[in-house]
Each structure stands twice: as structure tokens, then as C-alpha cells.
Amino acid sequence: MRRVLLPLAVLLAAVAFAQEPGTRVPSVELAPVGNVQVKAGGSAAVQLDFRVGSEFHINSNKPHSELLIPTVLKLSPTNPVAVAGVKYPDGQDMSFPFAPDEKLSVYSGDFTIAAVIKAPANAPSGNFPVTGTLRFQACDRSACYPPRSIPVNFNVSVVGR
Amino acid sequence: MALLVAILAMLATGKYLVRPRQHGAVTLVGDVRGVSAPDFALTSLDGRIVKLSDYRGKAILLNFWATWCSPCKVEMPWFVDLQKKYGGDGLVVLGIAMDDTETDKIAKFASEMGVNYPVLLGTDKVSEQYGNVEYLPTSFYIDREGKIVGKGTGLLGRAEIEENVQKALASHVVGINKADTSTPASAETTKTAVQ
């Protein structure tokens, strides 16, 4: 009897929670970032690969409406390392069932943000962590979630010239 | 075994309605039909303090929305029409803006959308009271006795919204006064509501 009831309870629980809209959490994940090497006095590019959970999309960095919340990467490097620039990909112009006549600029699936890291000529050799966040606002085909942030962390190694 | 049966029964019937919270308040989870809508006091766009209980005796469409929520924009003209159509019958649409932005921006947006009903500034507390509203739009349909008769999460069709409004309007309270407000909703009202 127990062998029957336990799986049934698990199944019913899964069904009960699956039926409640809004229990899904939109996910955006950062693929592991390898160690970034930069020469003192030089710069290096780092590719940050993100994946948006299936069935969700997030606004691009340049959404078509000022009311929409853009995806923004904020990085805080450890001195003396600095961020020389961040390049966002273009969004995909997509329509959704809730506004079939409107094109929204979004990221879905995989997208990559490129950052350029630089080190001054007098930077000592060593490891310098870069911490930051990616802020985004996700929607699915019928509703939207409040803005969230995920951590973006990687390590920069400064090597001699 | 008895515990397992009880858990199964709760899951099957959705009767896990009200979860006590640490600070003594309650929040709505699961099937909320028939539950008393939690009262709140929120600031309106014009600076008034508005309580849900101010509207006892009215049918309420309580809509959680935000300016950044594109599906919410689709519903708003429908709410404007429904307020015009059913306002005389006792419907009050209340919008709760869950934006974390300046009031002026929300007011400008509401004005551009032609909103003809009160818009209140949402708080974490009211979100918590109504089951941690995160998925927008989310609407609660509240009858004249203050009981929730329906809930809609995500963008619904206009016909479905209007059907919920009609259910909220269906309960008639004769000579309502403060002593009458604890009158339970009829079983029919709560049974016919939709999720």
C-alpha cells in the first residue's frame, strides 16, 4: 500500500504546484568564467555567456520603451584592475501573444556580453577578483516578474609585461 | 498512514488556503476562493490613504500591475471599460502598482492609459498579504461581503475577466452595515468562481 501511496503523493504534489501559475521562477545563469589574464599596461576581453531559462525572455540592454527595464551588467573590479568597456548584444525583435502588434527587444536562450578589462602599467602581478551583478526583468508569454539580479564574479590575473 | 491520507486530501482539494506568518498576519496561498480578502491601507496616486474596507458592500476587482509589465497594459483598457459598464452596479476597480519608481511616472502612465479607477502604490506588505504577488498581472475578484471569489494570474481574456466581475457582483448584501460584514459568502458564490 505504502509503495503505491508515496509515489501518488509525490505526483499529486507535483500536479498541485504545477497548476499554480507564478510558481515558476525565471532563471538567468552565467556559464563558468575562466581566469582572465591581462598584462600590466594592457587589456583583455572577457566573454560572459548567459542562458535565459526556456519559456522566458528578458529585455535587452536597449528595450524599445523607456518603461521597460533594460538588462544591465555592473562590474566592480578590484583596484588597480579596471573595466574599460561593456558591449551588449543587440536584442531580438520579437512579438508575443500579449501584444502581437508590438515588437519588443529581448534576449532569450543564450546571449553573450563582452567586457574589456585593463590593468595599468604599474599594476603589480597577482589575482584581482571582479564582482558584479546582471540585473534583468523577465517575462513569459502571459506575465512578467519583478526585476532580479544574479551575481557575476570572475578572477583577473595580472602578469608582468 | 492517516497523516499521508490527510496530506493527499489537502493537495487534492487545494485546501491549504491560509498560511500563518511569523508576525501573526496571514498570507493567501493555493485556492483562495471563499477567503476574506485581507484589508490594507495604501496611498493613492493623489496622496489619499485608501483601505480595502472603505469599499465594503462593493464588488472589487483588485489588480496588481506595473508599468514595466507589457501584459498588464493589455488588460487596463478592459478594466476602464468594465468600470464604466459595471460601476453603477457597484463595481470598483482598484489598481495596485508594484513599481519601484517615482509616483509621477506611474501617474503619467495611468493617465496615458485613460485609467478611470483608483491606482494605489503597492508595498511588500500587501504583496505578502495576497500570497507574495510576483507574477504580474494578478487580479483578485472580491464580492460585496469581502470574500475572494476568483483569482487570475497572468493575462486572461477579456471575457474571462468580465465573467469574474459578474461573479463578484452577484452577491447582494441588503442593508449592509458594519454588523453585516461578517456574513459568510454563499456556497454557490464560492463554488462558481474560477482560478
Return the CATH architecture of chain A: Sandwich
Q: Tell how many strands the DSSP assignment of chain A holds.
A: 13
Global mean pLDDT of chain B: 80
Oligomeric state of this protein: heterodimer
Provide the low-confidence segments of chain A as ranges: 8-21
Query: What is the CATH T-level topology of chain B?
Result: Glutaredoxin
Q: Taking Cα atoms only, what radius of gyration of chain B do you get, to the nearest Å?
A: 17 Å
Q: Strands of the biggest beta sheet of chain B: in what spatial order? A: 7-6-5-8-9
* The CATH superfamily title of chain B: Glutaredoxin
Q: What level of helicity do the residues of chain B show? A: 25-40%
- Major β-sheet profile of chain A: 5 strands, mixed
**Largest interface: pair, residues per side:** A-B, 31 and 29 residues
Mean pLDDT of chain A: 88
The biggest sheet of chain B, with number of strands, parallel, antiparallel or mixed sense and barrel status, is:
5 strands, mixed
The 3D shape of chain B can be described as globular
Total domain units of chain B: 1
Structural class of chain B: alpha/beta
Instruction: Supply the CATH superfamily name of chain A.
Output: Thiol:disulfide interchange protein DsbD, N-terminal domain
Task: Give a short summary of the structure.
The complex is a heterodimer of chains A (161) and B (195). By secondary structure, chain A is mainly beta.
Tell me about this structure.
The complex is a heterodimer of chains A (161) and B (195). Chain A has one helix at 2-18; strands at 28-30, 36-39, 43-52, 57-59, 72-77, 82-87, 92-96, 99-107, 110-118, 126-136, 138-139, 148-151, 154-159. By secondary structure, chain A is mostly beta strands. Chain A has one domain (26-159): Thiol:disulfide interchange protein DsbD, N-terminal domain (Immunoglobulin-like). In chain A, the strands form three sheets. In chain A, strands 2, 5, 10, 12 and 13 form a five-stranded mixed β-sheet that branches. A four-stranded antiparallel β-sheet of chain A has the order 1-3-9-6, with no helix packed on it. A four-stranded antiparallel β-sheet of chain A has the order 7-8-4-11, with no helix packed on it. The radius of gyration of chain A is 21 Å and the shape is elongated. Chain B has 195 residues and is α/β, with parallel strands linked by helices. In chain B, β6, α3 and β7 form a beta-alpha-beta unit. Chain B is 33% helix and 21% strand. Chain B has helices spanning 2-13, 70-86, 103-112, 124-129, 158-170, 187-192; strands at 18-20, 26-28, 41-43, 49-51, 59-65, 91-97, 119-121, 138-142, 148-153. Chain B has a five-stranded mixed β-sheet with strand order 7-6-5-8-9. Chain B has a two-stranded antiparallel ribbon with strand order 1-2. Mean pLDDT of chain B is 80; it is low at 5-26 and 174-195.
